Amino acid sequence: QVQLVQSGADVRRPGASVKVSCKASGYSFTKYTLSWVRQAPGQGLEWMGWINPYNDNTESAQKFQGRLTMTTDTSTDTAYMELTNLTSDDTAVYYCARDVSGSLDSWGPGTLFTVSS
Amino acid sequence: DIQMTQSPSSLSASVGDRVTITCRASETISNNLNWYQQKPGKAPSLLIATSSSLQRGVPSRFRGSGSGTDFTLSISSLQPEDFATYYCQQNSSTPRTFGQGTRLQIK
Question: Which pLDDT value is given to residue B9?
């Protein structure tokens, strides 16, 4: 079955960057895009962007442009999300999700990272 | 960006009740609307895609409808496992915005 396994929780200082990994299994990795979604503590869901592992095309929400980099490694079926210049507002659980024509049908368990001085 | 507005933001109901959650888009999105369920401490899960397409394994008591700007999620007979937070999401255009969520609590 489809499985997405994410890297573990992390803590970063303001101004630092973080990279979250998402390893896919159970399906053809290059057949579907992957979206990244975050959820601040006690808040709702926020879509960040998607990447197409087939051709590395990406699209991201304007608020993250310049800070968000999404990449994939098709040799290991792993997607990566890097966010730079972190502030406390970036403290959240970050999810990767398989994106089937805009519907997020399988989700990773989430990665919590905390931005704190 | 397309704004998605859910109502109500929270809802109290009893096991066996029928409930309806609405989601309104700030512009027309055809049927490009998904519904997700999220339980505390867990990742969301897709319930309904393209407004009314029930995902495999989702009980038939869940029903989605709507097109254009107005959508509804109905649960016909609440079960204990249905108490969760529900989100709508449009995938008509990027950014693929979510509604703010509806928290369904036990009365």
Answer: 98
Quick one: chain B helix, strand, coil %, rounded to 5? 5, 50, 50
Q: Residue A25: CA atoms inside 13 Å, Cβ hemisphere, count?
A: 6
Of A46, A62, A101, which has the smallest distance from its Cβ to B98's Cβ?
A46
Identify from A4, A45, A50, A70 which residue to disrupt to test chain B contact, counting B C-beta atoms within 10 A and taking the largest count: A45
Give the amino acid at B38: Q
Q: Are the beta carbons of B34 and B49 closer than 8 angstroms?
A: yes
pLDDT tens for each residue of A31-48: 999 999 999 999 999 999
Please give the residue of chain B at the shortest CA–CA distance from A111: B43
Q: What is the pLDDT of residues B58-97, one digit of tens each?
A: 999 999 999 999 999 999 999 999 999 999 999 999 999 9
Q: Is it the case that residue A65 has pLDDT exceeding 90? A: no
| Cα B5 to Cα B9: distance, rounded to the nearest angstrom | 9
Bridge-based pairing state of the strands A33-39 and A45-52: antiparallel
Q: Which helix (H) or strand (E) holds A40?
A: none
Backbone angles phi, psi at B80, to 5 degrees: -55, -35
Contact A107 B95 (CB under 8 A): no
* Nearest-angstrom CA–CA distance, A115 and A113: 7
DSSP state of B57: T
